[in-house]
Structure formats: structure tokens, C-alpha cells
Amino acid sequence: MQEKFENVTLVSKANIYLDGKVTSRTFFTPAGERKTAGVFLPGEYEFGTGDAEIMDVVQGNPEVMLAGETEWKKFGPGESFSIPGNSSFKLKIEGIFDYICSYIKE
Can you list the domains of the chain with their CATH numbers? Predict the structure, then answer.
């Protein structure tokens, strides 16, 4: 997992979901990759995807269930999980989940 991003273009307006329980900021790398850096507060969530996504866990231990799966999988700092495009995923968060999301054009 990349710990530092240099020479990025940051979109100043925050992405705010679910009454502020999930927030992120979009940025673009010099190569044009779109990413978000954000935080989930404790709770249970379900999100849909357009593009495929790779979620890098910076801090926290989210439990994740991808569409079509029946078991929750727990991830920790330094780990990542992939979400197919045009899909959905569920999250259970205890504590804070700090993440970097990479969007993959298919």
C-alpha cells in the first residue's frame, strides 16, 4: 500500500455520505488515476460501484461482504480488497476505517 502521494491534484469539495458518517476527498495522481482518501465512522453500510474499486485499509479493521458472497471477511491495516464494477458491497465498521480507494476503468 502506498503511504504517500506526491504531486497530486486534489478536489477540494468533500464527498459526504450518510449524514457525514462516511467522508472522502477525491484526488488524481500525475498518471491521471482517480482515487479517494476517506474515513468511515462506526456502523453498517452498503455501497454500489460504477467502476471497479480497490480499497486499501490504512487504519481500522473493516468486515466486508461482496455482492454474491455469504461470508464476511475481515481486513486490517496494509491489506486491500477488490470490488467488481457495477456491483455492491457491505461493510461493518467498529472504530474508525481510514482508507484509500482506487478506481479501475474496465
Answer: 9-104 (2.60.120.10)
